[in-house]
């Protein structure tokens, strides 16, 4: 059989049906610590959430409200935890504080998933919280998460894993000098895990350590309850009675009437275990008196049922019937109250869902606006880019047309220059031919005059034959140096000056060849004009290149015309 103790379950040994009913009814109340001012606490937390002026304060109060209503209205607690997580995920400021709060909210959401029998989801959330805690190096949150993982594996009956996590949580909490109550809590839960494995000595040692560390009497009373259950399980009823009596003293001192009434109920169950029914009746009388004072119907229902069972066991059927009748009345009343609570819970859930829906609609509207603005921005940027590309394309086309126009003009200019150069060369050749013809005529006349002056007929005949042979073979040594020099002086005096000034190392024959090349005469024309072989012309040009120290690819005339002497 099972009963709930501080939000966990403990296996109890089997007893008779009568004893088991009493144990179930009486000892289950030890987990229900409900403050008399719970409605005021809820209202206060709701007020703090609404009046919070900062996100950090609002998130903190929402988490506190989640913790408060976790065991009262689990669906509402789940809504709150999810709201906190969604708010933090939308928050752009990823501070360590907000990340820590996110890990805390995820922890409580995991607890809720575990309570609602979704172990896979619960484990996933715990691991997510663990990852965040490690990333921000928050040892306090890390200790809490690892402790919760221990709780998870204990519920899954994987006790070895549970114990390992509880021990790790204790190590972390002790290292950071955490709140002693938090350290004691892990010791307490480690003791519960040993209890599940029936390792009663280890459980007792952990409970004792937790009791030694706890600083508040209320927490000490909690671990006392575990010790009492340990004694009860091992049928050490006297020790269980002693511990419950110790708890009664603590609750009286603290004026915790709800817990005091529960302690009397548990004490009655322990007396019942040793068949001390009269003492059980006395304890139940005290419990009922306190419950009436605080108007706690739930406790009264259980206590009347328990006292009815004890009276029945004593054979006092009249009192047993009276108490059972009162039990039925409170039970019916509580069922109506529970129904009303369910309606209130539904209304509260609806309210939270409605507020959440309104928030989501508002966010969707904002998102739609942003998307519309984004579409407009994209259209504007696209239009601007299109216009820019068109303008750029037009500019490129204009530039290409201008380049083609310029190339055509340059081509026309070049063609004109070539035509001009060709005409100039033709004029030069024509002028040169004219000069040569004139020289030929003058020389021919001079030769004729010299022949005519010969008196001897035989010699005159020989001279005439020699002249004819010379004319036919073009072997007459015409002295064209003077004519070329005069012509060059007229056409390009700068060339002659530069040649004589900077290239004095050239002989007259080489200069004469350069004059002819300056006139743009071909090699064959120079050969005929100079009455020399083609090889001689090429040999002379080769010697000139050697003296000028230029290669065969470079134009000799351009080199001379562009020559700049070194200073």
Describe the structure.
- By secondary structure, the protein is mainly alpha-helical.
- Helix content is 81%, strand content 1%.
- The chain contains 23 helices and 2 strands.
- The chain has a two-stranded antiparallel ribbon with strand order 1-2.
- Mean pLDDT is 80; it is low at 1-37 and 474-482.
Can you lay out the helices and strands and say which pair or pack?
Layout (H helix, E strand, L loop, with lengths): L1 E4 L2 E4 L5 H11 L10 H14 L3 H15 L4 H17 L5 H20 L3 H17 L3 H17 L3 H17 L4 H17 L3 H14 L3 H17 L3 H18 L2 H17 L3 H18 L2 H18 L2 H136 L4 H17 L7 H11 L1 H10 L5 H11 L4 H8 L3 H15 L7 H6 L6
Antiparallel strand pairs: 1-2
Helix pairs in contact: 1-13, 1-15, 2-3, 3-4, 3-5, 4-5, 4-16, 5-6, 5-7, 6-7, 7-8, 7-9, 8-9, 9-10, 9-11, 10-11, 11-12, 12-13, 13-14, 14-15, 15-16, 16-17, 18-19, 21-22
List its salient traits.
single chain, 23 helices, 2 strands, two-stranded antiparallel sheet, disordered N terminus, 567 residues, mainly alpha
Briefly say what this structure is.
The chain has 567 residues and is an all-alpha fold.
């Amino acid at each position: 059989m099972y009963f709930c103790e501080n939000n966990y379950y403990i296996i109890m040994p089997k007893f008779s049906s009568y004893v088991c009913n009493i144990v179930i009814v009486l000892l289950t109340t030890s987990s229900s610590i409900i403050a008399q001012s719970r409605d005021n606490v809820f209202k206060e937390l709701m007020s703090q959430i609404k009046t919070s002026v900062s996100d950090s304060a609002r998130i903190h109060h929402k988490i506190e409200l989640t913790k408060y209503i976790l065991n009262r209205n689990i669906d509402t607690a789940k809504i709150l935890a999810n709201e906190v997580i969604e708010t933090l995920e939308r928050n752009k400021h990823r501070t360590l504080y907000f990340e820590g709060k996110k890990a805390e909210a995820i922890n409580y959401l995991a607890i809720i998933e575990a309570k609602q029998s979704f172990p896979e989801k619960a484990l996933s959330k715990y691991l997510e919280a663990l990852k965040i805690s490690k990333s921000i190096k928050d040892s306090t949150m890390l200790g809490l998460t690892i402790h919760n993982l221990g709780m998870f594996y204990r519920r899954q009956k994987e006790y070895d894993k549970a114990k390992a996590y509880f021990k790790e949580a204790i190590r972390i909490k002790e290292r950071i000098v955490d709140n002693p109550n938090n350290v004691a809590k892990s010791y307490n839960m480690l003791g519960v895990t040993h209890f599940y494995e029936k390792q009663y000595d280890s459980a007792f040692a952990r409970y004792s350590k937790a009791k030694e560390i706890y600083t508040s009497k209320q927490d000490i009373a909690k671990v006392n309850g575990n010790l009492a259950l340990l004694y009860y399980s091992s049928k050490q009823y006297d020790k269980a009675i002693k511990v419950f009596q110790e708890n009664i003293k603590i609750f009286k001192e603290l004026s915790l009437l709800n817990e005091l009434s529960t302690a009397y109920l548990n004490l009655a169950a322990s007396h019942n275990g040793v068949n001390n029914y009269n003492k059980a009746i006395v304890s139940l009388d005290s419990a009922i008196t306190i419950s009436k004072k605080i108007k706690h119907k739930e406790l009264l229902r259980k206590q009347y049922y328990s006292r009815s069972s004890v009276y029945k066991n004593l054979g006092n059927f009249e009192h047993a019937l009276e108490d059972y009748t009162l039990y039925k009345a409170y039970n019916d009343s509580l069922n109506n109250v529970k129904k009303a609570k369910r309606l209130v819970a539904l209304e509260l859930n609806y309210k939270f869902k409605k507020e959440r829906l309104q928030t989501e609609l508002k966010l969707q509207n904002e998102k739609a606006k942003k998307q519309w603005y984004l579409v407009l921005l994209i259209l504007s940027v696209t239009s601007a880019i299109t216009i820019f590309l068109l303008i750029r394309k037009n500019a490129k086309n204009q530039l290409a047309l201008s380049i083609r126009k310029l190339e055509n003009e340059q081509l026309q200019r070049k063609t004109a220059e070539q035509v001009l150069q060709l005409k100039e060369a033709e004029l030069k050749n024509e002028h040169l031919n004219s000069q040569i013809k004139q020289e030929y005529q003058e020389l021919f006349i001079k030769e004729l005059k010299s022949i005519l002056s010969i008196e001897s007929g035989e010699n005159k005949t020989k001279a005439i034959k020699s002249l004819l042979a010379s004319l036919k073979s073009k072997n007459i040594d015409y002295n064209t140096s003077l004519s070329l020099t005069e012509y060059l002086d007229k056409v390009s005096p700068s060339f002659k000056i530069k040649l004589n000034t900077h290239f004095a190392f050239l002989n007259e024959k080489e200069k004469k060849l350069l004059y002819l090349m300056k006139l743009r005469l071909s090699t064959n024309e120079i050969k005929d004009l100079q009455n020399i072989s083609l090889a001689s012309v090429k040999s002379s040009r080769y010697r000139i290149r050697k003296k000028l120290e230029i290669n065969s690819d470079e134009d000799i005339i351009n080199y001379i015309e562009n020559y700049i002497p070194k200073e």
